[in-house]
Amino acid sequence: MEHYDWNEGWLFTPRFDPALVRPECELELEPVRIPHTVRVLPYNYCSENEYQCLCGYRREFFAPREWKGRTVLLTFGAIAHDATVFCNGRRLFHHGCGYTAFTVDLTGALHFGQKNVVAVRCDSREDLNIPPFGGQIDYLTYGGIYRAVSLDIKEPAYLRDVFIEAKAEGDFRIYTSTVGETVGCTLQAEIRSPSGSLAAYSGELSLPITGVLNGVHPWSIEHPTLYTLTVQLIRPGSAGLPDRVLDEKTVRFGFRTVQFVAGGLYLNGQRVELRGLNRHQSFAYQGYAMPDSIQRLDAQILKKDLGCNAVRTSHYPQSPAFLDACDELGLLVFTEMPGWRYIGDESWKAQALQNCREMVCQCRNHPSIFLWGARVNGSGDDEAFYKRTNEAIHRLDPTRPTAGARNHRKSQLLEDVYAYNDYSCRGRGAACEARAAVTPDTRKGYLISEFGGQQMPTKPFDDETHRLVQALRTAAVLNDSIAQQGVAGSFGWCMADYNTHREFGSGDRICYHGMLDMFRNPKLAAAVYASQKTPRSPSDIVLEVSSGMALGDLPGGAPTACWVFTNAESVRLYRGNDYIAEFSPDRHGRFAAMPHPPIEINDFVGSLLEKYEGMDPPSAQAAAAILNDMRRCAMELSPLSKARMLSLRLSWNEVARMYCKYIGILGSPSPVYRFEAVWHGRVVGTVVREPVQSVRLECTVHNPILTDGPTWDCAAVSLRAIDQNGNLLPYCGEAVQLRVDGPLKIIGPSVVPLRGGMAGTYLATTGEAGRAVLHCRMEGALDTDAVLTIRSRENG
Ligand code: GAL
Prior knowledge:
By secondary structure, the protein is of the alpha+beta class. InterPro entries: Beta-gal/glucu_dom_sf, Galactose-bd-like_sf, GH, GH2_Domain-Containing, Glyco_hydro_2, Glyco_hydro_2_cat, Glyco_hydro_2_CS, Glyco_hydro_2_N. Residues 158-256 form the Glycoside hydrolase family 2 immunoglobulin-like beta-sandwich domain. Residues 263-530 form the Glycoside hydrolase family 2 catalytic domain.
């Protein structure tokens, strides 16, 4: 058994020519590294025509004589979207799904002891008769060999697949499938626990290996314990010869049990409230073609920064690196078959079924996956077709339920779970629909597979009111889905902004539906998720204040609502050196069902009137109530405030003077506001809002240590303009000039504008190891540098 990474040495042409597949080829070709995109796109205003092409890849290699009599398997992690593979001019394989892996047996076409050539005809045009194509699609589909490629040299008999079903109680079943002549062969299986202890089992090829492992640590969201299974295919020795290991496969897995009871999800017998986001696997400039570390970062952001416990890989199976990270982090995954709203003809459906089978076989050992999407997202009913997808999925994986995300109520429920894209939130009344009004069978599972999205597209550079609406609506749906009995939870639409087709988005080919921008910088609404984390230490405390406290940003100069998104126990507000008030989450209010309800800051006066106006405490309190009430109502006097004025014998002039002094109008001197997060009696976080005095450019490299190999690697960089107190400056739109010294290449432009005070870039490794420095320069701010280390796989 030999394994080779095959991500180097490829040549590319954007226009396929039949000459490409021939052993000798004179075409002008471009050397490329995998993952590869057929076209690097601009950030926005890109065109979906740019990446649609019939293109080609070619790789020459030497097949040593020792390979003779063995099996040579070439595996592509993913090619978007339709791929035909040739070896030495012979057409060997065709694959029609851009989101699943496939393996080509090259053996019969090889010339041993000679040069060989593999070529790929790659079709990324959107008129293909395969999923997700056929209708309009709200995301770009890109093109190219965008996941890793590898070559395996095996014996003529080998293990094609290993699948382990493992329950929380420790009982397991191992299924294997083999290729080639295996008469008389046996299997050896070894399960290794995280502590290194081993348990060995043996079995026959025709039956699953079953057993019970005592004292297992189940895989859960809090403790995602992973075990490994190694299966060997063995040819018993004869005539004094020892046994021979023909093949060996190692997979990671977890012991866990998934059930839906009366709508809700139970993991290992415990109710889990799903709090998740939908994820597209696309990135600025590169589309799908990003290496593993960038895929893994997304899982970390979801779990660690946003506090999610689940993700939906809308609308297709995503990279194994992303799923591996979900396994390690304890992030539940709802993975679905490729597609978007459209169901095609019989040939399209046959491909869709094949996609379902590949999705399950390739992903089923991941303990994080708890649910399979057996329907094309948002499609109508099709009884015959969806009976088949459900059957195919259940046959290949009897352990997990199926669901299907629909946009309609009471659609036919052939799955175990009704997944509903609930876009009913209008900002008033209930923020999600009643489960009983949606699902035809309340005994089955129920979850909200999407909400938000097109209801409130929000750009990071939208005004404060708009950004706050996105955040509050997100909170409202989270709250109402938790409050409703029998709802397993929700997946917001969506994690990050994404490039889309002309029929969708804001006219610039971007759907601004994310909690994060395309570079994964957080918008205000991200704090709604982040603040739901259970804090274990002061560093887990989130404190995000919705308002910039700049009156001129708001219509009529009237202040708007001010909300704090926090998981602290309370928030204290100071004005200058004066303490105003302490605010705690309202456990009976609009967001009472959330673990950490957002807090409305509704008192900006406190006891200031007592201190500075010489009022007695009850009068000071009543007068403060008038001012706070006026602040909420754009300086209007409510009947209650009028009544209070009368009883306090305050004139309008007097009230207006105090309003100007303690709340402020356009032109009033700007006070300094300080918000403190209090946790376990201590101040663990502070936000200061005061006029901006200086602008700083902050540069964060999320993964400053890179490894070139087995593919190129990439660093994700965030840029933010902040003030002297570390506050984001949402209207800073300066250009940032980027320059790298050392072996890294900037992907996309080297001058990037800040959008909503934020930007990002990606830095790709070049094959060389060393140290690199990213220099960022912005007019009006000091230059910032970031240091990166690049290792190559050889030198560790
Ligand atoms: C949904 C769809 C998503 C996305 C979203 C936008 O209907 O399933 O893919 O387009 O709308 O809000």
